[in-house]
Amino acid sequence: MSDRVAFVTGAARGLGEAIAAACLADGMRVALADVDPAVEATARRLDPSGARAAAWSLDVRDDAAFAAVFDAALRRFGRLDAMVNNAAILGPASPWTTSLDDWDAVMAVNLRGTFVGCRIAGAHLRDAGGGRIVNLSSYAGQHASRASGIAYAASKAGIGAVTRGFAMELAPYGVTVNAVAPSAIEGPQWAAVDAARRDALLATVPVGRAGRADEVAQTVLWLVSAAAGYMTGQVVDVDGGRGMR
Ligand SMILES: NC(=O)c1ccc[n+]([C@@H]2O[C@H](COP(=O)([O-])OP(=O)(O)OC[C@H]3O[C@@H](n4cnc5c(N)ncnc54)[C@H](O)[C@@H]3O)[C@@H](O)[C@H]2O)c1
After folding, report:
1. Residue range 48-81, pLDDT digits in tens
2. DSSP reduced 3-state for 53
3. Whose C-alpha lies nearest to ligand 1, atom 37?
4. Is residue 245 situated within a structural domain?
5. 243 found inside a domain
6. Span from the CA of 12 to the centroid of ligand 1 (angstroms)
7. Which residues contact ligand 1 via a Cβ below 6 A?
8. Number of domains in the chain
9. 102: helix, strand or coil
10. Which atom of ligand 1 is nearest to the CA of 36?
């Protein structure tokens, strides 16, 4: 996939960083965007030369800034082939302590941010003759799950609808749109969960362990590849079998 370019949101750390790293290891170039200025250091760590990875500060809630950063990345690399809408935040676990401001904040980043990212990248890829969009959903968006709260779960379920909606729109133009739904992946979010809750959750994972960020990243990488051209509008579970049915 050399020469191709991916744009990854929420790329400062965690799965976004792992996805950017996997794209780079596969020969792609990567635009990393994140509201956290640490994204600059992440890009330098992944590509000390600065030739194949570049970072932008971006709050995906700001649609004008999103379009401007997308254009800047396009100018910097000369092309963009894949968009990975990965940025997200968690909400309060309990519905009784979820304020309406909490609800709006989760929706603004996770659901509206993904919609805006799909629309900006989708219009470009449609006019450029094809490409790939991958959105990060979650087990919580597909199944009942107390841990991450109703707002987060609803936003991630909504991402399934956004994915299918853009997949229908863009299928005639060679643009595929899919989502990946991870569960219990090692990283900053997982580390923040207390040990007793982690153990209880692991007991529900058939493979008996937490997933690794690179296992999610490799799934995203495959969906971005030419080999995945006949697959669109799907939500792919990467969850150790937790949600199998
Ligand atoms: N880690 C898991 O077990 C797991 C499970 C299911 C789904 N997911 C999904 O995978 C994705 C990555 O998860 P993670 O564990 O790496 O999370 P994380 O919290 O470690 O990373 C999320 C990144 O998004 C960035 N971000 C937050 N708000 C933003 C905004 N407004 N604009 C731009 N960037 C913003 C953060 O700064 C951070 O770098 C998320 O969509 C998450 O919902 C993760």
Report:
1. 999 999 999 999 999 999 999 999 999 999 999 9
2. strand
3. 36
4. no
5. no
6. 9
7. 9-10, 12-16, 34-36, 58-61, 86-89, 109, 136, 138-139, 182-185, 187-190
8. 1
9. helix
10. 37
Sheet holding 5-9, edge to edge: 53-57, 29-34, 5-9, 82-85, 131-136, 175-182, 235-238
**Residue 244 belongs to some domain of the structure:** no
Nearest-angstrom CA–CA distance, 161 and 179: 10
CATH number of the domain encompassing residue 119 = 3.40.50.720
- pLDDT tens for 84-111 read 999 999 999 999 999 999 999 999 999 9
Q: Looking at residue 1, what is its pLDDT?
A: 58
Whether 131 contacts 80, CB under 8 Å: yes
Between the CA of 175 and the centroid of ligand 1 the distance, in Å, is: 24
Q: 169: domain range?
A: 5-238
**SS3 for 137?**
coil
90, 136, 148: which to mutate for ligand 1, most atoms within 8 A of CB?
Answer: 136
Residue 198 lies in a domain: yes
Nearest atom (ligand 1) to Cα of 189: 15
